[in-house]
């Protein structure tokens, strides 16, 4: 049996101060390959802290985080960067596309640092854009893309390295309801194809798409058991 | 390919990718890039232009430095330390009687002799005959000249012969005149064998020679030359003192390249007892002249170029720093897709270096253009030393590299969390 994609053992993050802020209290969580997990909670509950820990952008103060069975807490900065560049794709609420680069160039950016051979980059990037339904807008600048299209480019950028895990931080936060629905359908589709997705959201409608929902409140995780998702 | 402990390839940014990212960063903001590198363009341009223009100017000076100027030495009589002459008269001229012969003994002298403008009374008139007195009262410079001086002046004779030593020794009333004076007085060069006379205030001088032009002293204007001793007898001693335009002078024709050596010896040779009475004027040393131009003017402009390079560096540093702050979101994304802090630093460093290099290239082109256009406008030959010109763009690279160091450090230290939170 293969290791779960994510395994948290007593993972915690405390910000020093007087008094110290317990952004994430010791948490245990297992996410298997192909899972679609929503993390919900009000603002300030610790959602972003969890996202940064899962995305290896921040280091925990206690506990361990196993990604694909590898304990990440003991890794050097170089190895954490390597893991982040290879195994994790992150989609941000604000898209974070480079404004002067085309859609294709924005996706190519994700292949810049992980030793993807130059010859393979273009094909992979164009393929990822095709996968999110933007095969016809490769050369469009972000300023000419709609919000929904921009977020699709960001998803293509997260997908292009075939990561083990895609983290989405309020992916529909900057979208109108019609685009939000289309985007969630795209995530459903990608999950159906086997992609492991963690969506962080305060929107119950978005969370409803996920098979599992993990609530976070005041830094404490609790999983809500619900009917299995198709 | 270096692998991490996990068996994953280490994150890396190849030089080619870094360059491509830097170039992309510049081309996407051409207006800003142009303004940013303006200081570098000006600095490198000024550097190339200054070195080119000084080299061109120095080359031109040595070219204009003709053989003629390089073979002429002038010695002026400043007069005795105390005026010993009776009131109303001038002291004896400083040059000894055998001045020509003494000068001839100095190695490198081709011809040398003493001359001075004769002191004529007011209203002097020149004419070709007593009967026609006043017919041609034009201004003619009456010059006293020793035979050696006539040879040093090197007149091109049209008719007759130059003044001879015999005519000087015996103080003959003879003269040689230029062609314009001859035609003004109605003296035809063809008539010389019939010994035409020229009258100066009624004193007759037999015209023995007519010249068209000369290499030294009498090359321009109308002149009438009479022997030295004749002038002394008729008009007395010349007025001493530099700047009176009337003092006795010695003109020396030297062999090429000997002017400097002759000028150092002539005063002591002519007047061993009082060499400082004679003021020697030698042609400027072309090598010295060249180095002076390089030293003074170029030094000043090179300092200006340096200042402008400094301003250019500050400009690049400033803009790059602003870009780092403005692009925190981009830095966060790059970190999120696997970039390490050093990759971020390398990217901004590559960008500022590329900007500096581009500025250096454009500046070099402008500098070369200025030199070529300036030289063409002056009909000069443009001189550009490849040793300074070809590596000039690298100055821009160095400026860009140094200017980018601090902003790159700031970029590398940017916290990716903070970078992603705000955009």
Write the SSE topology.
The complex is a heterodimer of chains A (about 230) and B (about 425).
Chain A: E1 6-15, E2 21-31, E3 36-40, H1 47-54, E4 62-67, E5 70-71, H2 77-87, E6 88-91, H3 103-108, H4 118-131, H5 147-159, E7 165-169, H6 177-192, E8 197-201, H7 204-207, E9 212-217, E10 220-224
Parallel strand pairs in A: 3-8, 3-9, 6-7, 7-8
Antiparallel strand pairs in A: 1-2, 1-4, 4-5, 9-10
Chain B: H1 15-27, H2 30-36, H3 38-64, H4 67-70, E1 72-77, H5 99-104, E2 109-117, E3 126-127, E4 141-145, H6 147-153, E5 155-160, H7 165-169, E6 174-178, H8 179-185, E7 197-200, E8 203-214, E9 223-227, H9 228-235, E10 249-254, H10 259-270, E11 278-281, H11 286-326, H12 328-336, H13 341-377, H14 386-389, H15 392-413, H16 416-421
Parallel strand pairs in B: 4-9, 6-8
Antiparallel strand pairs in B: 1-10, 1-11, 2-4, 2-10, 3-7, 5-8, 6-9, 7-8
Helix pairs in contact in B: 1-13, 3-11, 3-13, 3-15, 11-13, 11-15, 13-15
Number of helices of chain A: 7
The rough form of chain A would be described as globular
- Class per helix and strand makeup of chain A: alpha/beta
Evaluate the radius of gyration of chain A: 17 Å
The biggest beta sheet of chain A is recorded as: 6 strands, mixed
CA radius of gyration of chain B is 38 Å
- The tally of strands of chain B reads 11
Strand residues, percent of chain A: 25-35%
Distance from first to last alpha carbon of chain A: 23 Å
Strand content of chain B: 15-25%
Order of the strands making up the biggest sheet of chain A: 6-7-8-3-9-10
Largest interface: A-B, 34 and 34 residues
What does this protein structure show overall?
- The complex is a heterodimer of chains A (230) and B (423).
- Chain A is α/β, with parallel strands linked by helices.
- Helix content of chain A is 31%, strand content 26%.
- Chain A is built from 7 helices and 10 strands.
- Chain A has a 6-stranded mixed beta sheet, sandwiched between helices. A 4-stranded antiparallel beta sheet of chain A has the order 2-1-4-5, with helices on one face.
- In chain A, helix 4 crosses helix 5 and helix 5 runs parallel beside helix 6 (177-192).
- The longest helix of chain B is centred in the C-terminal third of the chain and has 41 residues, at 286-326.
- Chain B has 423 residues and is of the alpha+beta class.
- Helix content of chain B is 51%, strand content 15%.
- Chain B has helices spanning 15-27, 30-36, 38-64, 67-70, 99-104, 147-153, 165-169, 179-185, 228-235, 259-270, 286-326, 328-336, 341-377, 386-389, 392-413, 416-421, and strands at residues 72-77, 109-117, 126-127, 141-145, 155-160, 174-178, 197-200, 203-214, 223-227, 249-254, 278-281.
- Chain B is built from 16 helices and 11 strands.
- Chain A binds chain B through residues 48, 52, 55, 57-58, 70, 75-79, 81-87, 90, 92, 94, 96, 98, 100-101, 105, 109-110, 112-115, 118, 157, and chain B through 1, 4-6, 8-13, 16-17, 21, 24, 28-29, 329-330, 332-341, 343, 416-417, 420-421, 423.
